[in-house]
Amino acid sequence: MRGFFIGRFQPYHLGHHEVIKNIINEVDELIIGIGSAQESHSFENPFTAGERVLMISMALNELDIKKRVYIIPLEDIKRNSLWVAHVREMVPPFDVVYSNNPLVKRLFKEAGMEVKGTHMYNRVEYQGTEIRRKMINGDDWKRYVPKAVAEVIEAIDGINRIREIIGKDV
Amino acid sequence: MRGFFIGRFQPYHLGHHEVIKNIINEVDELIIGIGSAQESHSFENPFTAGERVLMISMALNELDIKKRVYIIPLEDIKRNSLWVAHVREMVPPFDVVYSNNPLVKRLFKEAGMEVKGTHMYNRVEYQGTEIRRKMINGDDWKRYVPKAVAEVIEAIDGINRIREIIGKDV
Amino acid sequence: MRGFFIGRFQPYHLGHHEVIKNIINEVDELIIGIGSAQESHSFENPFTAGERVLMISMALNELDIKKRVYIIPLEDIKRNSLWVAHVREMVPPFDVVYSNNPLVKRLFKEAGMEVKGTHMYNRVEYQGTEIRRKMINGDDWKRYVPKAVAEVIEAIDGINRIREIIGKDV
Amino acid sequence: MRGFFIGRFQPYHLGHHEVIKNIINEVDELIIGIGSAQESHSFENPFTAGERVLMISMALNELDIKKRVYIIPLEDIKRNSLWVAHVREMVPPFDVVYSNNPLVKRLFKEAGMEVKGTHMYNRVEYQGTEIRRKMINGDDWKRYVPKAVAEVIEAIDGINRIREIIGKDV
Amino acid sequence: MRGFFIGRFQPYHLGHHEVIKNIINEVDELIIGIGSAQESHSFENPFTAGERVLMISMALNELDIKKRVYIIPLEDIKRNSLWVAHVREMVPPFDVVYSNNPLVKRLFKEAGMEVKGTHMYNRVEYQGTEIRRKMINGDDWKRYVPKAVAEVIEAIDGINRIREIIGKDV
Amino acid sequence: MRGFFIGRFQPYHLGHHEVIKNIINEVDELIIGIGSAQESHSFENPFTAGERVLMISMALNELDIKKRVYIIPLEDIKRNSLWVAHVREMVPPFDVVYSNNPLVKRLFKEAGMEVKGTHMYNRVEYQGTEIRRKMINGDDWKRYVPKAVAEVIEAIDGINRIREIIGKDV
């Protein structure tokens, strides 16, 4: 059984990590879709799809997962009625969708697919918006992401990027 | 050192397989870009990006590669001057491009990147066009693709698809 | 003389119905353009273009209009300077535009066309936003739409859709 | 039961007319999709979507059909895997597809829909390409289209348009 | 040495004019990019790219600049990672970018280009938003733009346009 | 009176140069539109829009024209019915179109604009396709373009580009 999980992963954090650890036990193979793949260099979406592929790949490496994982960037299609067909075109066939996003759930259900919720892990602290805010303010953001993700962000000069694009003096 | 190799993989065949076996020895990690990802259900591009991800992933499994391989679908951007930036946005950072395609080589060279040619493996027989023609004509196409690819194509009813879309009675 | 009237019709309600009853007396044929045709499954635009075609068609049936009415979905072009040309390309030739939308009026006037205002019918109650809010809150929304429209919305499970996409427990 | 039939209708001719006369007997309501709606002013697609809506609407008027017919322009989506979802978004729900186009048939079949072939009516003479060629050469094209269609084409100066865009002296 | 300066110029005002007077002394040739070229007829972007080309060209005429100036409309690409490649494709090669926009500066810096800030000229008064508001309210907006720009705006009926599109009675 | 002239200018050659010399005498100001601006790095369209802006600008410099000339890149819109609106949006208002292209002429005529033909200058030799072929074959291409254009092409390594993208050994 192949499962599908989608997020924007700006950045990939420990909340995502916990969710994926749980899902991986329920499936034979897992597809991780990276949403809004064409977005980058904004406060909402500072990192490119390629950088996010790298973050997730490095972080999963730490988990030493024995099952196959596909990490696929997905450009926005901006037409809700076509979105499920777009996802299905870009990733290998899958049997079940894991999501807590109301729109994602509804769209897959209208397409006749099985949808399961995910157990959120400390949703207050593990939130992309909150972590990006800490990056800008110089707070400790590293404790919210896997170690490998912090290394990727530093290697690409990510903190300076996010500060500069919002016009904050570095 | 991370390398980048791109193809349409319609389908992924033994010619691609040999090229990748060679490249993998020269790099630490390999990114395989799937070009024209948005195309499918035509003679030129019968298989979806997701199906091609599956073919490549299954075929590489047979090789038991110890190095990390990223398989990334790339939608066409249809503007040559933006194409390199588009690839770089969608895949992890890379150091060298492997390609024999004249346009790909020129575009990456104008962007200041290192480009290496690949050793083509029996180019007459191992060609997507030729293999698709055999699929339509009922000739033996399986000997030109890795075993795992043939299994994927059969599982998705690929031969009937390619015959029907060109209007050939099944 | 052929007239053109445009709206998003999310949903088609009795306010639209009254306007169209008035316009129909002034023209020989009427074109009804369905704006933002590519949008659906959001609070602003819950229904697909096809569903809106159906609503309008069924509702007009109740009126027993003897004149020809064309119902045409219009995808957004997102470039104001091209919008009039886009509308003219997609619908039969017309002589007069009926609208109260300031931008629509200005764009058609700059293109040299005749534009007439419409008599709004109880604008406070007959508003798409307000009716969608009632759908979500479980208030009586049916009294604001033609009977045939309520039937379409129920047949497509429209109330559950609008509630789920905004994350409201059903 | 609602049926769906699609064509480019460049122009709508007596071959289409015969097919629709047959289909209309089998369905309760008919949706006619106008493909490549965004194309016009070329030899392949001389007429705008709006002009084609007009042709079909006027021609059907001659038939005095008692059943509801929806005439819907459909812009190309240029991604085969999304095309069925695009059609379904833009037109009312339907139960059966009528087509002889191999790609259309395969795409709807992969989506799990019922597809029926149509009885072609003298396919040699009733072909858009052939009729457009006659328009250019000054041959008698009017005998191949319904009378109402000929009137529309003359009202929009269609013969001069098709001659001029291919650079033929008028 | 060729410099590049970009703005939306809605409208081109004396603040822009002062900046350009300064830059022109530092470069051999100047490229002025008109951003969001595809936007018009909105409060944010009332004027078309062509109208903005005209404003800038007429205003520069007053300065009697001896150096070559290129005025190039640039449509939005809506993908930050591709934007620098898009600009470079559309304008002649340049050596230095003049900008105070944080995102523009970061994007060009990541592409390895030299970026210089500009000296803002009375930023409180010389702001597009503020000037457009004055146009709507009937305040004296002409003192904030070069004389030639005021003439262009009047020739194209610009004040009525901006008032009408926001629904303000003229 | 302002005139509009459009071409792809791949490259700008002496045939274009002669046409423009003639037009410039008939108008007060001239707009030169660069068509297919988004195309580059192909045999049909080897040079970017920016490079073509540079070629034309440098070549006109040789003519010492006293009238204002606007050089504006125009991306393809790929919808003929919208193309005139697109051109009008991107360039300053104009009174007359100069063209020998049948489609361009028809589209502007349908929009109610005045269209004039141009006197072709030795059409056999002065043709983009022919000049590009000479570039590839190592024939003398420089005699067909203004001296300034040859300098631009050499400065951007244009001959190697066109040879490499078609896969010709340099």
List keywords for this structure.
170 residues, Rossmann fold, homohexamer, globular, 7 helices, alpha/beta, 44% helix, five-stranded parallel sheet, 5 strands
Strand order of the largest sheet of chain A: 3-2-1-4-5
Oligomer: homohexamer
User: Could you state the order of secondary-structure elements of chain A as H and E?
Assistant: EHEHEHEHEHHH
**Number of distinct helices of chain A:** 7
Give the low-confidence spans of chain A.
none
Count structural domains of chain A: 1
Query: Sheet with the most strands of chain A?
Result: 5 strands, parallel
> What's the CATH class of chain A, please?
Alpha Beta
Second rung of CATH, namely the architecture of chain A: 3-Layer(aba) Sandwich
CATH topology of chain A, by name, is Rossmann fold
Helix content of chain A: 40-55%
Q: Report the end-to-end length of chain A measured between terminal Cα atoms.
A: 48 Å
Structural class of chain A: alpha/beta
